[in-house]
Amino acid sequence: MSLKLPIYLDNAATTPVDPRVVGKMLPYLTEHFGNPASSTHAFGQTASRAIEDARGEVARLVNAEAREIIWTSGATESNNLAIKGAAQASQPRGRHLITLETEHKAVLDTMQELRRRGFEVTYLAPESNGLLNLEKFRAAIRPDTVLASVMLVNNEIGVIQDIAAIGAICRERGVVFHVDAAQASGKVEIDLARLAVDLMSLTAHKTYGPKGIGALYVRREPRVRLEAQMHGGGHERGWRSGTLPVHQIVGMGECFRIAREEMNTEVPRLRALRDKLWAGLKDLPEVRLNGDPERRIANNLNLSLRLENCDALVSSLADIAVSSASACSSGTAAPSHVLQALGADGSNALRITVGRFNTGEEIDYAARYLRQKIDDCRSGKLRAA
Ligand SMILES: *Cc1c(COP(=O)(O)O)cnc(C)c1O
To answer: Using a 6 Å CB cutoff, which residues line ligand 1?
Structure first.
């Protein structure tokens, strides 16, 4: 088998759509193109049935009820709807919100907007391993705290927060709890029947589905109050208007179905690939792992490279597609806010995330290639290129 370059190792930024998902989506662009709101004829009814099937699949992956799932355009929109929608609906009780410094920009920028509208936000710093200290969290809750937002899996360092414990504290104190789970679906088990989570953001394109489709879980028992952010035809029980993108929704349902069915075999396979890569690099004195080594998802490596005068390294990795920070904020030269919050060295940091379609051969190549590049760096070959 010949190796195709560059090798895609940036599966936390996005994933290719699984061919099985594409196959399921295609008929909904052509023969089953109906508007699901057209309840009077077969075209609409077929589309509507497909949407409800997909809703069931998304709900099943997270052990929720289908009617607790609202379609959105992705986790960014879900985060906006959850945080703005719940904050606005809770205003009579208070205007204080809590989040973590290491959240995704879709949470942090939404919090910033709410500050502009008169809310107060506490940003908690994680421990140096990326995890939230529960006592610090408990101490940050005030009588006027209405909402807390903590991600399940961090998109840069892959650490898994203790959502069960954080949720229990929120429930006890009457604080609405939102969880951004964009990076978690198909990688960690999510059981919303057991977790005290009120709102959860999900997206398809990090789990081998299409971009531009996501969902927000909204708990019914106890009921969460939420103000709509998108007004129009009253779709999705008034919470999110707009004609539903049937093919996208079918794609999300299928990729979540596959995730549920294959998680038990896929996660160990990804862990083996990731560990193989790490085994090929960890003896280098310049390499340091960021984020807790145990409480992290199976496919993530985030490395700081302690190399002097070697800013060229990250941009010289032509054979492997990896991220120098978070893809969502690259383009800006600013160092990663996540690594900064950990007190880690973000100047020469690499995020390497393996995925469903990577092979052992690719991982061997990537490890050899990275070692060579680090060697070049050390010997001055890459200096000030
Ligand atoms: C990718 C990502 C998002 C944004 O999701 P979109 O569906 O691309 O809008 C939000 N939060 C986290 C943690 C992510 O990894």
So the answer is: 74-76, 104, 106, 151, 155, 180, 182-183, 203, 205-206, 214
User: How many A from CA of 373 to the centre of ligand 1?
Assistant: 31
CB 323 within 8 A of CB 10: yes
The candidate with the shortest Cα–Cα distance to 118, out of 84, 72, 143, is 84
By CB atoms closer than 10 A (0-12, 13-18, 19+), residue 293 is exposed
pLDDT of residue 383: 58
Q: Give the active site residue among 170, 255, 310, 328.
A: 328
The pLDDT assigned to 1 comes to: 59
pLDDT for 324 equals 83
Q: Catalytic residue at 310?
A: no
What is the reported pLDDT for 378? 83
Q: What is the pLDDT of residues 235-283, one digit of tens each?
A: 999 999 999 999 999 999 999 999 999 999 999 999 999 999 999 999 9
Alpha-carbon separation of residue 195 from 114, 128, 165, 200, 257 (angstroms): 26, 26, 9, 11, 21
Q: Which of 72, 76, 105, 190 to mutate to test the pocket of ligand 1 (most atoms within 8 A of CB)?
A: 76
pTM: 0.96
Q: Cβ contacts of residue 229 below 8 Å, gap of 6+?
A: 80, 81, 84, 85, 240
Choice from 110, 161, 180 to test ligand 1 binding pocket (greatest atom count within 8 A of CB): 180
In the prediction, which pLDDT does 326 show?
A: 41
Q: Is 131 helix (H, G, I), strand (E, B) or coil?
A: coil
Which residues 6+ apart lie within 8 Å of 373 measured at CB? 313, 316, 317, 382
- Residue spans of the chain under pLDDT 70: 1, 309-310, 325-333, 383-385
